[in-house]
Amino acid sequence: MGEPVSYEGIKSDANLIAWSRQYCRRVRREWGVSVRFDLVDWEVSHRAKRRAAAVKRPKLADATVGEPYDWDSLDGSDGRPVPCTVSLTWDAFSTFDREAWEATLRHELIHVEQYQRDGTTDHGRAFRDRADQLNTDVHCPAFTEPKHVLTCEACGGLVARRYQDCKLVEQREQYRSDCCGAALELA
What we know:
32% of the residues lie in helices and 16% in strands.
């Protein structure tokens, strides 16, 4: 597995991946996250501007969060989940302090855990409950300034950050917040 990397010693993509993997393995051990790391690939993005990290995975049409996926039904899976990729964003890592980066990794581990169990993932109720258990946020902090910020009209909670004009921004009156079911405000 290689020599341990200190957080302060992260100077390259390889260091970032090595340290993040070490941390995620510790989270699995200490927080009881059910993830098979032999089915997780890692990469670093130097282009992403909106996401601190992401789990890239195949979209499985019949997968539903909360319902264990029958991996045996998928050709070539041998009953095991198809590997996914955790993509880490260098600019987010460079902007965040250690605590925020660790929270970002715990957030992504929830996505991996859901995907490996259910074949899909989202930010719904099950994700929010697990985020509470892992002391992380449902939405990772921004590391670049968005062009548009949409909030819930009722509670003021963040609904979305958008970095360009899009359907959600232009037709926001047709959408409701997940938290309160209220209209969206453009901040």
